[in-house]
Write a structure and sequence with these properties.
The chain has helices at about 25-40, 55-70, and strands at about 5, 10-15, 45-50. The protein has 2 helices and 3 strands.
Length: about 70
């Protein structure tokens, strides 16, 4: 699969979701299938948007790190 950003050694995928890109049903369905397949393979997929503040994105990463450390 093609990912916006990835940290392969940690199996973390970062998807920058844009409203315009997901404008049709086929793209939406493809992305959901891809996310499910990645989850089955042990990947954590984080979705960020242009409207998210840097602090929100840092919080997501912090929470993921805590979850992975548990």
């Amino acid at each position: 699969y093609r990912l916006d950003f990835a940290i392969p050694e940690l199996k973390i995928a970062i998807e920058a979701d844009g409203f315009v890109f997901h404008k049709d049903r086929a793209t939406f369905d493809y992305d959901k299938k891809r996310d499910s397949e990645l989850s089955i393979l042990g990947w954590n997929v984080l979705h960020i948007t242009a409207k998210m503040k840097d602090s929100e994105i840092r919080d997501l990463f912090s929470r993921l790190q805590l979850a992975l450390a548990s």
